[in-house]
Amino acid sequence: MKLLYHPDRDDIHLSSVLYALSDPIRLSIVAELYKAGERTCGDITVPVVKSTLSHHSRTLREAGVVRVRVQGTQRFLSLRIDDVEGRFPGLLASILNAYEASCSSDEPK
User: What would be the CATH architecture of the domain defined by 13-101?
Assistant: First the structure.
């Protein structure tokens, strides 16, 4: 079985994290994981095909934002909150708060 690359905490770079979170689909994946905890790829609700979801999860994994755990044929995604917060305190919470605020301001009143 092929092992998936996950950068060590010290190898997580701000530019990579910000790039990974700059895409609206990836940001929605991270927001969903933040709320719900570990999820399988099939449980993540984003409007993209499976191959595109794989691309987005790989980008998040290689940036150090998520951890992907393989169990049989399923892949489980979870946020690396401790690692990201250890490197960049408050970054993830700040970005997710801004994301949630922008989503709620988009709703019709």
Answer: Orthogonal Bundle (1.10)
Cα 13 off chain centre by:
15
Question: 10 Å Cβ neighbour count for 90?
Answer: 9
Q: Work out the angle at residue 83's Cα, subtended by the Cα atoms of residues 77 and 84, and round it to the nearest 5 degrees.
A: 85
Helix H or strand E segment including 70:
strand 66-71
Domain ranges of the chain: 13-101
39-40: strand order across its sheet: 39-40, 74-79, 66-71
pLDDT band at 6 (very low <50, low <70, confident <90, very high): very high
Interval 52-73 mean pLDDT:
92
Place of tokens 């399988």: 40
Distance CA 109, CA 88 (A): 35
50: left (phi over 0), alpha (psi -120 to 50) or beta: alpha
pTM of the model: 0.88
